[in-house]
Write a structure and sequence with these properties.
This protein has two domains: 282 residues, Aldehyde Dehydrogenase, Chain A, domain 1 (3-Layer(aba) Sandwich); 178 residues, Aldehyde Dehydrogenase, Chain A, domain 2 (3-Layer(aba) Sandwich), CATH 3.40.309.10. Strand 1 and strand 2 form a beta hairpin. The chain has 488 residues and is an alpha/beta fold. The N terminus is likely disordered. The radius of gyration is 23 Å and the shape is globular.
């Protein structure tokens, strides 16, 4: 572990976590630090280095200095290191899951069985895709042509506080595979598992500066990072408000920018659907305390099945167990932070005051727990319908036919995801095409092919990630053109 006796370390869930930055293959402290609390009981579990302009400059310059060597390894050389990193992630699942559970209160069983392994799969997937990339060749106008990918250069990756380890790897993996050194800035509410990722890159043998972790408050270190003149790509997941500031900074330096910016997805249930499956999936939108950008938070149900759907939905919600995310019986965990609890409760209280009908829930419980909540809004223009709450709060509306269902589905500024339940393939195709979203699931949810494009429309995002779409984003494409017969 770099930094020797001076490296700051916290013990979290029985595991040591370094709490300084990781820059240029070394632990780098900062004079300012900030507290990280666990949502489980509200206690402080670590004091983490809070970076600023100095640390942002150090990190980007370290990535810049590493860029030529990392690009020079070629796709196969980088893939070998990425596969080694993936193996180390799988070997450290218990440690990573325990720390992330303490840090942001995602269900421990979910982390252990699925989420952390998905992070390893991200590295393997992009490593293999980069190696398999075939340059496009063709003849035109007496010349031989080839499209080549060039690594773009240092990339800033700014990630959210929900599922921070896995969501970080979703962006870090394609950047590294494409040949771009990375500066990762994790969210200040849950930075600890990303610090562990830095340790794993060291153990995997990554050259210094190829992967850097820059910690701190977004308004300080994040602003310095995205405005750095040596940066060549920016990828962000978070709110549209923050994305607008990042977009301005990126534009000043003409840096390509991609953003996944949250959602207000519809979950549409038609009268020919499997009601038991649809109601169970609707109740499942409360998982992770509703802190999932892809969640179908607007339940849109055909009028003719209103009562049978609600009966099944309430029965499924009643089976939820709210509590400690470390306990296997828990299905709904605490919210991430006291400030976020206030935000979620603010939406609920304003909806009640505005006359929206509170169907169930709406109460704070012990600590940061919040009851699964359902509103029937007074109108489709209600704030509780139109704005992302990012908590265990759903809305319920009915529709008469396909046309009205699609109109309601497309009636917000968001367009990240949609869910449709129907027994008709024709309807699945029609409604799937008509719903404006980056992804629409039919009779399922959160099933992801890592080679498929992912992103949002409207204020839900800019650009696409996933598969070759992500590798292309982290590359500069070049056409090599050679006069026929001029070379041997």
């Amino acid at each position: 572990m770099s930094g020797g006796a001076h490296t700051a370390v916290a013990t979290v869930a029985g595991h040591e976590v370094c709490t300084d930055h990781w820059i240029g293959g070394e632990r780098v402290p900062s004079p300012e630090r900030f507290d990280v609390i666990t949502p489980i009981d509200g206690s402080v579990i670590a004091e983490v280095a809070a970076g600023g302009e100095r640390e942002a400059d150090l990190a980007v310059r370290a990535a810049h200095e590493a860029a030529a060597g990392w690009a020079g390894l070629g796709a196969a050389g980088r893939a070998a290191l990425l596969h080694r990193l993936a193996d180390l992630i799988d070997a450290n699942v218990e440690r990573l899951a325990a720390v992330e559970c303490a840090d942001m209160a995602m269900l421990l069983e979910s982390l252990r069985l699925r989420v952390i392994h998905r992070a390893a799969a991200n590295f393997r997937n992009y490593a293999d895709l980069a190696v398999a990339y075939e340059e496009r060749d063709w003849h035109s106008k007496g010349t031989w042509n080839r499209v080549q990918r060039m690594p773009a250069g240092p990339a800033a990756v700014i990630t959210p506080w929900n599922a921070p380890f896995m969501l970080s790897t979703w962006k870090v993996a394609p950047a590294l595979a494409a040949g771009c050194p990375v500066v990762l800035k994790p969210a200040e509410w849950s930075p600890l598992s990303c610090s562990l990722l830095a340790e794993l890159t060291r153990a995997a043998g990554f050259p210094p500066g190829v992967f850097n972790v820059l910690q701190g408050v977004g308004e300080q270190v994040g602003a310095a990072l995205v405005g750095h003149p040596l940066l060549r790509r920016i990828s962000f997941t978070g709110s549209p408000e923050t994305a607008r500031h990042i977009g301005v900074a990126a534009a000043r330096n003409l840096v390509p920018f991609t953003g996944e910016l949250g959602g207000k997805g519809p979950l549409i249930v038609f009268d020919d659907a499997d009601l038991d499956a649809a109601a169970a999936k609707a109740a499942g939108q409360y998982d992770d305390a509703g802190q999932v950008c892809l969640a179908g938070t607007r339940l849109l149900v055909q009028e003719s099945i209103r009562e049978p759907f609600l009966e099944r939905f309430h029965a499924a919600v009643d089976r939820h167990v709210l509590g400690d995310p470390r306990e296997p019986e828990t299905t709904v965990s605490p919210l991430i932070h006291p400030d976020h609890l206030e935000r979620v409760d603010g939406f609920v209280q304003r909806a009640i005051a505005a006359g929206d009908t509170l169907v169930r829930g709406g109460r704070r419980l012990e600590g940061l727990l919040y009851e699964p909540t359902l509103f029937e809004p007074r109108s489709n223009d209600a704030e509780i319908v139109q704005r992302e709450v990012f908590g265990p709060v759903l809305t319920f509306q009915t529709f008469a036919d396909e046309e009205e269902a699609v109109a309601l589905a497309n009636s917000t500024q968001y367009g990240l995801s949609g869910i449709v339940y129907t027994g008709s393939m024709g309807r699945a195709d029609r409604v799937g095409r008509a719903v404006r979203a980056g992804i629409v699931w039919v009779n399922t949810f959160l099933v992801r092919d890592l080679t498929a494009p992912f992103g949002g429309v409207g204020i839900s995002g800019i650009g696409r990630e996933g598969g070759n779409y992500a590798l292309d984003f982290y590359s500069d494409l070049k056409t090599l053109q050679v006069l026929d017969g001029s070379v041997r």
